[in-house]
Amino acid sequence: MASALPGRDSGRRLRVGLDIGGTKVDAVVLGDDDEIIGRVRRPSAYGDDGVISDVVGSVDQLMREIGRSAADVASVGVGIPGLVDTDNGRVLHAVNLGVESLDLSARTENVLGAPVVVENDVKAATRGAAALSGTASDGSMAYLNLGTGVAAGIIIDGEIWRGSGGIAGEVGHLSVDPRGRVCGCGQSGCIETFCGGGALARAWARPAEYPVLDIFDAADHGDDDALMLRAGLFHGAAAAVRVLVLSADVATVVLGGGLASLGDRLLDGIRAALRADAANSPFLRSLHLDERIELLPTGSPAAALGAALVGAIPRKKENAVHG
Predict the structure, then answer these.
(1) Residue 139, SS3 per DSSP
(2) For tag attachment on the chain, is the N or C end more exposed, with fewer CB atoms within 10 Å?
């Protein structure tokens, strides 16, 4: 099927990227030099047909916004949760979207008339974060997504590092306290139980529109429970940074995800935790971990941008299925 679609040398120049989440779709279109020339956000739909509608509808909406047509689209990249087979564009177990198994590329390419490449959302965001942060394309970096859950993507020598089974970067499910809170994965004391938004909301157990923000505000006013949870968040995120650097020796860890909207309140706390951990360790001090982290600006379209970039990259056969 893909061979009948327009190639990258066909005169089409626009590359579209979509980040499909459980509540919203963030979509961008790139012109020359990877410049974002259009962006739309819309609520996401549910189920197989809903996801297909989101892809097709977002491309159509973007083209209307910039006064172009689908005939100008060279490629479409889609970042989506779940397990993704990038060889054939199949999505598996995207539970928050109501998708068990969906051949997303096959069901959208003929409609759009352009190749559709599907990538796991965190790995797409990793590619986008590298571009937004100015990380050298041939260097090493990690993107640490602090959202409802915790996961990371790793770039080594300019390429996404997937590991043998595609789970490289799943630092959220490393246990750092066997006596800690039970994680959704069944282990106790995982990094995600300390700094995942969902776990923090359950531990806070107070009505709040934004529980983690509520925790920070309450901690500023001396609430003991909030102080404990905030310190745990910093501890967990610092542990994730330490794992990423010690295991992959990345030069930079870029922080993103929903919790990144806390800005310097988050960044300064994680840096302080890294310095405290290194206080009695000459080895850790030599790594300067607190200097290796940076924060994406609030609202950065990292996953959508990354999806647009990977949409134009020919896929390799190995390690195709990953989450």
Answers:
(1) coil
(2) N
Inter-axis angle of helices 121-133 and 302-310, to 10 degrees?
100
* Average pLDDT over every residue of 284-306: 95
H helices present in the chain, as ranges: 47-66, 104-112, 121-133, 191-195, 197-204, 211-220, 224-248, 264-278, 282-287, 302-310
Cα(249)–Cα(247) distance, rounded to whole angstroms?
Answer: 6
What pTM does this model have? Answer: 0.88
Mean pLDDT for the stretch of residues 87-94:
92
Residue type, 81: P
Q: Per-residue pLDDT tens for 128-153?
A: 999 988 775 668 999 999 998 999 99
Question: Among 55, 165, 171, which residue's Cα sits nearest to residue 117?
Answer: 55
pLDDT surpassing 70 at residue 322: no
Backbone angle region of 75, left / alpha / beta, with phi > 0 → left and psi within -120 to 50 → alpha: beta
pLDDT value at 66 more than 60: yes
- pLDDT for 2 equals 32
Which residues face 82 on adjacent strands? Answer: none
Edge-to-edge order in the sheet of strand 83-85: 99-103, 90-94, 83-85, 321-322
Query: Per residue in 172-191, is it b (16+ CB within 10 Å) or e — as a string?
Result: bbbbbbeebeebeeeeebbb
Q: Would you list the DSSP string of 34-72?
A: G-EEEEEEEE---HHHHHHHHHHHHHHHHHHHHT--GGG
Picking from 259, 202, 241, the residue whose alpha carbon sits closest to that of residue 225 is 202
321 band by pLDDT with thresholds 50, 70 and 90: low
DSSP 261-302: GGTHHHHHHHHHHHHHHHTT-HHHHHHTGGGSEEEPPTT--H
Q: Where are the alpha helices (DSSP H) in 139-210?
A: 191-195, 197-204
